[in-house]
Amino acid sequence: MVNFKTVALLHPGNMGVTIGAAATTSGARVIWASNQRSQATRQRAEQAGLVDVGPLSAAIEASDVILSVCPPHAALEVARTVAQHGFKGIYVDANAISRATAEQIGEIVAQGGADFVDGGIIGPPVKQAGTTRLYLSGARAREVTELFSASMLDARAIGDESGAASALKIAYAAWTKCSDGLILAIRALATHEGVDEALLAEWSLSQPDLARRSLRAAAVAAPKAWRYVGEMREIAATFERAGLPTGFHHAAADLFERLAPFKDCTNEPPTVAAVTEAVLGLSHKQR
Fold first, then answer.
1. Can you give the pTM of this predicted structure?
2. Taking a C-beta distance cutoff of 8 angstroms, is the pair 58, 32 a contact?
3. Are 265 and 176 in contact (CB under 8 A)?
4. Cα-flanking dihedrals φ and ψ of residue 259, to 5°?
5. Which domains does the chain have, with CATH numbers?
6. How far is CA 31 from the centre of its chain?
7. How many CA atoms lie within 13 A of 260 on its CB side?
8. pLDDT digits over 5-38, tens only?
9. Residues whose CB is less than 8 angstroms from the CB of residue 235 and which lie 6 or more positions away in sequence, other chains included
């Protein structure tokens, strides 16, 4: 069994902090760098039992493994920063990025002397067993699964080829997150055309789950939509690389950009009406 003494988590967001906590459950010492991070991030890291080492350079120097869990648009820059510090352990990118971006990150960290493992997270933040899977690919993927062997996180190695885990994540999210955007756009269209109540009545007859799904998309997806913009662009790039139409996911990215004002609104989840106004660019007075 491989014994990784120290793991650095970059950076402890709502999802990432639970991945770090899963590693601590399995016996790893998980550290993080608090410099230039928000008070909310500091609180999450402290509650998860992560060890603050101050500057990023200290976290990189002390680590055997680095876990990158950040918004997709930041993944490349995080990798470049780590490589510039000459990290020579295992670099795990667990972000929602395309295979092409994962391969690029692999090249970047390898130039700095690190081994690369590609990762993709499917499921919610890790709060109970059986809900969240971390797919891993690359020559050292099986070693990384051992970081979580005693935790509630289900870590699965799916091959030695870097990029496979990201490709799986992209294929999965291409439906789950894009369909949230589509159903919210449909509710906005129906409202604009004055047929929302009639649509809900028809759904109750022929598609009884769709009204519930639209309510859930507004409450759960809208507060996280700012994170989905980059992910939708990565999905569109993946479709383009495969010779498939990209319009689905570029449109979803555009819609999610309109939902940025709901960022982290979890105490009072947004309603469909509020989301519709944002999507259409309306105020109550305009309506």
1. 0.91
2. no
3. no
4. -95, 10
5. 6-162 (3.40.50.720), 168-280 (1.10.1040.10)
6. 20
7. 6
8. 899 999 889 999 999 999 999 999 999 999 988 8
9. 98, 170, 173, 174, 178, 249
